[in-house]
Amino acid sequence: MDFNDTPEEAAYRAEVRAWLEANAPKSAVADDGEGGGSMAASKAWQAKKAAAGYACITWPKEWGGQGGNPLQQVIFNQEEANHPIPPNPFTIGLGMCVPTVATFADAETKARFVGPALRGEEIWCQLFSEPSGGSDVAAARTKAVRVDDGSGDWIIDGQKVWTTGAQFSNFGIVVTRTDMDAPKHKGMTMFWVDMSDPGIEVRPIHQMSGGSGFNEVFFTGVRVKDSQRLGAVNDGWKVSLVTLMNERLAVGGASGAGWSQFMEAARGITGVDGRPALKDQALREKLADWYVQAEGLKHTRNRTMTALSRGQTPGPESSIGKVVAATQMQDLGNEALEMLDQYGIISDPELAPLRGAFHASVMSSPGLRIAGGTDEILRNIIAERVLGLPGDIRVDKDVAFKDLPTGR
Amino acid sequence: MNFDFSDDQKFLKNEARKFLDANCGTAKVRKVLDDEKVAYDAGLWTAVAGQGWLGAAIPEEYGGLGLGHLELCAIAEELGRVVAPIPFASTVYFLAEAVMLAGSDAQKAALLPKIAAGEVIGCVATSEGPGVLNAAGLQASVAGGKLTGVKLPVTDGDIATHALVIAKENGQPGLFLVDLSAGVTRDALQTLDPTRDAARLTFAGAPAERLGAPGEGFALLEQIMDRAAVLLAFEQCGGADRCLEMAKAYAMERYAFGRVIASYQAIKHKLADIYIKNELARSNAYYGAWALNTDAPELPVAASAARIAASEAFWFASKENIQTHGGIGFTWQIDAHLYYRRSRQLSLVAGAPRVWKERLVSHLERRNAA
Hints:
Strand content of chain A: 5-15%
Shape of chain A: globular
Distance between the termini of chain B: 28 Å
Number of strands of chain B: 9
Helix content of chain A: 25-40%
Oligomer: heterodimer
C-alpha cells in the first residue's frame, strides 16, 4: 500500500508536467459560468491540448487521442488543475455526445465530427431532459415524424430542458418519440442535430442561483436527414444508455468552499460565547464530520485509481461521490452562514467572507443535488446495481406510450 | 497509486474468513453471551494463537510472524465480521502495541513471545468513572513501584494477566505495565456487550513498571490509542459490512404488501445509505492502515478519521439492520443485537467518537495554522 506512481505513471506525469509548464496559460480568465467571455480562451487551450494529443488521452490515435489508459487521463487532469486553465465547455460533447455519435454513426459522419470536437472548434450539447421527465428520460414527448415524401427525412417538434451549454453549442444529440403506440422504452429514436437550424430556439433558464448555465430548447418543425439518425428506429433507449453511462463520469463532484475554508473563517469570527467560533464545540464536531467525509471521498478516489492503475474496472464505491459531496456542500455552506449570525444574510462579495463562497455553495448546491442523477436516483442506482436489490415496480412498462397517464 | 491490500494480504484475509466461518459461528458467540460465567471463548483463543494471528505484527525474534500491520488490519476486519468473543483487541492492539512502542528490551523479551503464544491476555485500564479522564482528575497512583487505585470499566479485566494502566507517580501521569497476578481485586461488571467481558479493578499494591518517560503517560497513551484506533476501525468495518449483508438478505426474502420489502425505496435508500457510510469508513480505515504501517506523521489525523468514520458506520449499520428486520430484529434469537451491542463496545472502548472529533480538529487546527 503506497501512494506512489508506478515507474510508468511517474514517467508519464513528468512528461505531462513538462508539457504543461511550457504550454499552459500563465494567468486565469474570469469564468462567468456561461461560457461567454471565457470562450476564446477555452477554445485556444483545447486546440493546444488536441495538437499535443492531450485532449482525449484514452481515445484511439486515429481519432486524435493517445490510446492511453484512464489513469493517464487522471494524471493529466491532476497536473492540469495546478495551472490557471480556462473553463472547459467541451466535457459533455467529448465525454457523452461524440462517443455516442462515434458508436452509432457511419464512418463518414464520425470522421466529420470527431476532429473538430476534439480541437474545441465545435461544441456539443445533450438534449435528453424534458419538462415531462428529468430522472425518467424515457418519458420524452418530443416527437420525430417521418416526412411522407420518400426523402426519408424526419420532422422534430417539442421541447427539451436543462440543456447545459445549448446557447453556445454547434450540434446536439436529441432523443425523440417515434412510436406513440409502443411502450415508452420501445418507441424512441436518437438523432444528431445542427443547433443553427432556424427551427431550434434556445432560451436560457434563469436559475435560482442567479446564473444561466442551462437552457430550454424548443424544436419547431426541425427537418433532419435519416442519415442523422443514431441507431435503429425505436432503438433510442439503448443508444441513450450508452450516452448516460458516461454521464456520471462527466458530471463532476462538488467544488466550492470545504472544511478547510470553513475552519479558517471560523478562526476570525466571534462565536456564541464570545470566543472565536472555531472554539465552539458544536462547530468543531461538524468540522470533524466534514473532514472525515471529505477524506473518505478522497481515499475512495484513490481506491478507484488503484483499480485503474491495475487495468481493472473500478469497483462500485466510485458511485458514492456526488451524493455525499453535494449534501455536504449544502450543509457546510449553511453552517457557515449561521456562524456569521445576522451578518450571514449578506452575500455581497465585497462584504461576505471568501467573497461570498459559502453563499454561493448554499445557492448552487440544490442544483448539484439534482443534476446528473438526483440524490434519490443515485440511491436507487446504488441499491439496484451495487447491492443487487430489485428494481422499482414499473406501472408504465407494457403500456402504449399514448395511454400513459400524465400529470404536470 | 497502490491503495489496496496486496494479493498475499487478501489471501490471508480470505483464509482468516474461512477459519472463522468454521470456528466462530454465532452459536459460539452466543455461548459467551448467554452464560454469565463464561468471559470469552477460550477454545477459539487457543485456535487463534495457533494460527499465529496474535503475533502477526510481532517481530520474529520475539516469537511473532513478523508480518506488517496491514496483515493485522486484514485479520481485524474478519474478527469484526464475526463479533469474535475473545480478548484480541485488548491483548494485540493495546498491550502488544504498547510494549512494541515503548517497552524495554527486557519487557519485550518477557511479554511479546507469550502474547504471540496466547499465554498472556492484556487489558487497558484508564477510565476511573463517568466522563473523559484527564490529568487533573486522575486518582490512581504509583509509589515505590506499587499501584493503588480503582479502574472501571476495564474490558477483559477479569481474565487479563497484564494491564496497561495510567496513574500518577510523583504527581505526574505515567503509563504503567502491571502484572495482575497479585495486589488486585477484580469484580465483573454488567455491560452492554456481554460477549466482551469487563471488570472493576481495585489495585492495592500491584507491581507496576513504567513504560516510557515520567510525566508522559497521556502522550504515550495517545500514541497507543492511535494505533489501536486503526485496528479497531477494521473490526468496525467488518461488523458494519456484515450488518449490511444481513439487512439485504432479510429484505430480499421478507414479503409485505405482496412484494419483497427490498423493492421499496424506503428500504433501498436505507441500505444505500449504509453502503455509503461503510465505504467512507473503509476508505478512511485504509488510509489509517497505510499511516500505521509506515509510521507516518499523519497517523494521529488518519487514525482519528478512521475511528470516527468506522464508529459512525457500524452504529448506523447495526441500528438500521434491526430496523430493516422489523419486530423479529428486536428478538434475542436474531443476531442483529450482537452487532448492535458490539458497535457500542467498539465505539466506547478506546474513547468515544466525540473525544476523537475534538482530537482531530485540534490536530487540523495546528496543521492548518502551521
